[in-house]
């Protein structure tokens, strides 16, 4: 992957600006590639020293399930990468409570420590961002 | 105002790339600056030079290319997503350039708004 | 904050999830297949009318017209074209696409 | 479009065999291309003299709405093609009643004459096919 | 007739629509994201357990395992691998994909 | 038994083409005959010769091509869908051929079962 912090027509420097970026994950892993390619953006974004948060709601919470074994579908298991996010100083992972309940999931089912938010709190989180990315 | 655009889907299959184009065109007509259009996921297919739709249909690839030519819009195709989907310099339409994901993050930082079009 | 919904409420869960996350100062734009959520007399009409009491809801008219549902739009939903869509993006400080 | 009734490795002739083909339409038009490209298959299939039926259920029934005007989205309005199907001897168009009711639609809202089926009748139709195609 | 469902019941309407169209001699195979419909303790469990009373329901085990939900499968759902999927296609006279 | 396969989605983005491949491979191993694999809609992207996934990922295009080579499986890409999406002889992987939609209808007629993989 080419890392490209410089580009043509860059009309101002990006250094110094810190914005709040929220990555919204609402899709299950493996059925589609969105979850994986979203994570690839998050990893690159880490180099930009922005204020990054990840939100998991609806089927997006399935991305961080423990115990994924993908050998038989011949697709790479990318769930361990969520554990590596801490090393990139990405530590704000939020999961919506209502989405967990609808799927019968508990905090200990997740591969990473997360903060559980009510729907109202999740809405508040969304509202206070500068940039919201969804895939 | 400076607007960044993210296109997550390929041409014809999903309406996302149509809506993104019509939005971008309207923004330019209203005098806004398009900071960049970034093509990710299947969005990279929007840059496929070999695309040949039926004659009575819109030509989505050329429509983007014309926007780049007429209004100097920066059309960036994600290199990782493009390689995975077989988009390379040899089939890249003029007016698009291939670059890294950092260009998307940069859009988020530099643009006043980042508008996402997907499935 | 402007929330965009581009999927039909009878195909996906998007229109069910999005309104729960509206806050003061929020608004919804229905576009593409999302405009089916703007219609009277459907299974999702009630949900949308309820949200409409507290938040402005917009629908992209080109998409309404393309689908032949121009006479079925819920009262109170504001219709915009692509130019109006741009104005909404400018008006609200952030945009979240419910994909 | 290249018409290709012949192909390599054809190990038996297709003429003479008549199978029941059902095309199941469950997706709305324009948001995705499936409805249009499904119709393109139906038109080609007409040349093969098979027993063809079209089923519209869930959001698929939106495909045959009257009054579609697509100029502003710059996409071709393909709904008139449904009216041309009769000329190809494709006359069995079925719409599910429950799907109509959930969307507040009536028979007169459709661009073509259709036969309205209950869910049970639709299930029966599906069950009696030789080939079911969905896109 | 074998019905295949490949979408999550909490994202799409597929698993809601499909079981209504089952007839005697019908069966369902849950695969890809459709295997989320095979799980205990979810919002769609009841619907699936109800269908299970009258029709066999299968789930593709490679997809179950990929998603880390191997301990949550509803009792009575039969697990198959790709070879078992082929056997089902051979066993039932037609296949309908609920896309 | 003779099986026909229809693939409606492109590689990597949707699991459909993975499932279709693994199903097809299992069917061959069990001694069934694959009458044809037909690629429609975004499925045509499965034949893009320029595809270059990350080294630790499966190569979906080459995987299909190998199936064609090893087991003489007929891999047919729909010409109309392919033109609309920029797949032509110049970027078509060996082992695939481009032909008309009639080939899909023919699969329905000739095969004992037609199995559809999509979104």
Describe the protein's architecture and organization.
The complex is a heterohexamer, with 2 copies of chain A (135 residues), 2 copies of chain B (119 residues) and 2 copies of chain C (99 residues). Chain A is an alpha/beta fold. Chain A is 24% helix and 18% strand. Chain A has helices at residues 34-45, 80-84, 97-102, 119-127, and strands at 20-25, 51-56, 92-96, 115-117, 131-134. Chain B is of the alpha/beta class and 119 residues long. Chain B has helices spanning 16-29, 60-71, 79-84, 102-110; strands spanning 2-7, 33-39, 75-78, 96-99, 113-117. In chain B, strands 4-3-2-1-5 form a 5-stranded parallel beta sheet, with helices on both faces. In chain B, strand 3, helix 3 (79-84) and strand 4 (96-99) form a beta-alpha-beta unit. In chain B, helix 1 runs parallel beside helix 2 (60-71). The relative contact order of chain B is 0.27. Chain D binds chain E through residues 24, 26-27, 34, 57-58, 98, 119, 122-124, 126-127, 129-132, 134-135, and chain E through 1, 13, 17, 20-23, 25-26, 94-99.
Compact overview of the structure:
The complex is a heterohexamer, with two copies of chain A (135 residues), two copies of chain B (119 residues) and two copies of chain C (99 residues). Chain A is an alpha/beta fold and 135 residues long.
**Based on CA inertia axes, which overall geometry of chain B fits?**
globular
List low-pLDDT spans of chain B.
none
Structural class of chain B: alpha/beta
Number of separate strands of chain B? 5
The number of E-state strands of chain C comes to: 5
Label the structural class of chain C. alpha/beta
Classify the helix fraction of chain C into a percent range. Answer: 25-40%
The largest sheet of chain C, given as strand count, sense and whether it forms a barrel, is: 5 strands, parallel
End-to-end Cα distance of chain B: 26 Å
Describe the largest sheet of chain B: 5 strands, parallel
Strand-residue proportion of chain B: 15-25%
Shape of chain C: globular
Strand arrangement, largest sheet of chain C?
4-3-2-1-5
